[in-house]
Structures are given as C-alpha cells and as structure tokens.
Amino acid sequence: MEMEKPYVIGIDMGGTNTVFGIVDARGNVISKGAIKTDNPDINDYVLNLKTELTKLIDAAGGIEKIKGIGAGCPNGNYYTGNIEFAPNLPWKGVVPFATLLSEAFGIPAAITNDANAAAVGEMTYGVARGMKNFIMITLGTGVGSGIVIDGKIVYGHDGFAGELGHVRVVRNNGRLCGCGREGCLETYSSATGVARTAREFLEMSDKQSSLRLVEPKMITSKDVFDAAMQDDELAKEVFEYTGKILGEAFADFIAFSAPEAIVLFGGLAKSGDLILKPVVENMEKNLLAIWKGKVKVLFSALKEADAAVLGASALAWEL
To answer: What is the pLDDT of residues 27-84, one digit of tens each?
Structure first.
C-alpha cells in the first residue's frame, strides 16, 4: 500500500439506504454520508452517489488520495462485480455495479455481498484479527454468512458460496422463506424469525406475557428482547428456542469448516447473553467430540453503525 493513497471508500448498500464513508488504514471512518437506495434508474442512482461521495473525497484531499472502492451489496458477486437478481433492490436482473463505480470515479472497485463484507471487516479491523478460520453470521432481517478458511473468504465456484441462512433446519412443515423454500435457518433465527416465533408462542399458550399488549403483527424482535429483559417467561422461551435452532445449526457448520470462532453480528447480536447462552449450550450439546469446547462464539467488535462500511472498504486495500 503506497502511503500517498492513505484512504479507501466503503459503500454499504441496503434495501432502503446506501451508506458510504472514507476509511483510513487503521479502520477509522473519517467521514460518512448516505443516500436512498430506492432509485428505479441505476445510472441516476450512481450519479447521485457520485455527487454525495465527491463532497467527502474533496474534503479528504481529492481522488488521488483514494486507493479504491469496496461495496457490500445484496447478491453482490465478487467474481463478476455484478449485483445478480437481488430480491430487495429496485433494479432487476444483473447490474454491473463494480464497473459502474470504477467508471464513475476513475479508480478500481470491487463488490461482495453484505455478510462477506462484514467478515472481511471483522478480519481486517475487528475481533477476528489474526484469525485464519472463522464464520461470520449476520443476524438481521435475514441471516447472512461469510465463511473464512485459511484467511480467505470462500466464494465457491460462482461467487455465491456461504448462504448458511438458507440451510434448511426444519425439514418437514418448516416456515415459508422469502427464497421460496421451507424451513430455512433465516425463518427462525433472524430478527423477523424471532418475531414470528413470539407470535406462534402467544397463540399456542395461555401464558401471561406483556407481549399480549402489542398487536400480534406489530411485534418486533426488540419488543421480545425488552420483555425478556423484564423477566417475561414467554419472551425468554422465544430466545431459548431461537438459540436452540441456531446452536444446533452452528454444530453442523463447525463440522464443515472447523472454525476457530463463530462471530455474531447484526441487530439480534445485541441481545447478549439472552441469545448467547442457549446458542453455546445447544452447539456444545450437538458437537462432534473432537470440537467440544474448542470453538468460541463471539460478538462482533465493530461499531454497528460503521461495520458494514468498514467491511466493504477493507476489500479496497486488496485492489
């Protein structure tokens, strides 16, 4: 890395907002901005992004100070540089996003999916520094994963490896997933999944619960967390159940790549011990003897607000 280019750009593209920032080699986000993602015209969106980012670039000393751009995007393919068939983005089909970025700014660009970006960020700046084998699990609206083996993200043959959120954990009569299949991990262990479990539990039992004061379809994972923190029995059972499914799945994932750690990131990771205790307990219970007591479950060390931008930016040091 030549020091005359001390910065990289990180872009975190979400379904609603796109957040971006300029990052230094230590992992400090020196400036940040955002635009709305919901622009139906991709060229218009890129232009908008360029306008806003240019303000930050100029303030940082101009484009010659920037080594490259990294972007974390839903269904972003590191190999092709394309966003491919992302269900929650306004552009359909295949979008050559890395090319559009490097043409707009005149510097190299790379993209990957959001969970892989989080894994790269954790390995570059976070709790996984120095680790060569770990699995990043992002617990948000869905469940994403970034798998690192021998210090490299696993992209697989086509760039899409690491969809652990779509491993089917309930084989019969599982919940319908947005992907069209049933019983995916994501339908149980995401923030959305926790809310779904709460609704089911409320329906199936007559237990007293403060969650009964909320209209069922309005219940969020945050409501369940708040109730559990107030010692609400039913809410605590929801976390036990969620942690059981997640822990059992982790035992299977460990059999695949023998990671040193599994790192949890995203909204649900904020639940701390409520989720960690049942996860570790059920993971250990289901592990093959050779791995018992060997794999750590850790929470991400990156500030939630900056993590995705940091992770995406980390891609750019490699360019």
So the answer is: 899 999 999 999 999 999 999 999 999 999 999 999 999 999 999 998 899 999 999 9
Beta carbons within 8 Å of 258's beta carbon, 6+ residues apart: 133, 291
The CATH code of the domain at 131-300 is: 3.30.420.40
Q: How much helix, strand and coil, in percent to the nearest 5, is found in the chain?
A: 45, 20, 35
pTM: 0.89
> pLDDT, tens digit, for every residue of 109-122?
999 998 899 999 99
**Cα separation of 143 and 140, whole Å?**
6
Residues of the chain with CATH 3.30.420.40: 7-121+305-316, 131-300
- Distance in angstroms (rounded) separating the CA atoms of residues 161 and 36: 28
Instruction: Give the residue carrying structure tokens 């996860």.
Output: 279
Backbone angles phi, psi at 65, to 5 degrees: -90, -5
